[in-house]
Amino acid sequence: MDIFENVIPREKLRSNEPLKDHTYVKVGGYADTLIHPTTTEEIVNVVQIAKSHQIPLTIIGKGSNVIIKDKGIRGVTMSLSQFDQIKVHEDTIIAQSGANIIDVSRAALDHGFTGLEFACGIPGSTGGAIYMNAGAYGGQVDDVVESADVITRDGQRMTMSREDMKLSYRNSIFKDNEYIILEVTFRLQKGDKEAIAAKMKELTMLREAKQPLEYPSCGSVFKRPEGHFVGKLIQDCNLQGTRIGGAEISLKHAGFIINADHATAQDYQELIDLIKETVYAKFNVQLETEVIFLGE
Fold this sequence. Notes:
By secondary structure, the protein is an alpha+beta fold.
């Protein structure tokens, strides 16, 4: 902790911080040290100090598709949630990795750009959206992203093109290496502002009608297996409403597991395992998780 105080203001450092307060699902243990940088220089400094002192470094964004395990995270956890500026330049939007992807879609609307309507209800950071190649309602990030500025775990900066990122369904090169996303550039087309607004309103209403937004959750738990819909598979196994501890398969949308009553990460893990085993036994379909577990 002390070694970071020379490069990060004291108010951006916290010890023994409950990480459930920093995720949408509201579960998880404590971070030994949590850092909230707001500048590129601070991020680079944290990365370099962690590397030189061999301190484990974990990166989180808005915590929307993440479950922190019950014993928390050792070393340093760096949250980029306050590194969140958005700039519009000609036909591009440049967003820092902690910016809400919803806010990026709204900036596109404000400037009459089409292409990001699908993101108007995705509750995560821009960096997380690139990391997961997030998508909804027929659109996904790789349709509109142009490039990303990143740093390596050695603190070296570089720019990656869309091709460099190897974006595929809920996957990217960032899952398999140590790059940290700093800033993302989206290239968009001019569109009709009223039509863009109408599409975003329609998608927001669809989401509110179908998803259990009234409860904490980690969003969509599983990737969609080819030729199937996860929610229907789970429904057809008669698992909807099943609860382990405080975690429950949503009655509103079976693809979501809600935190119904002070759930733990262990509750989530056991319920996910139960779903996987039951679906495989009945349909011979191997479900793969989209949600990411972090910590110990």
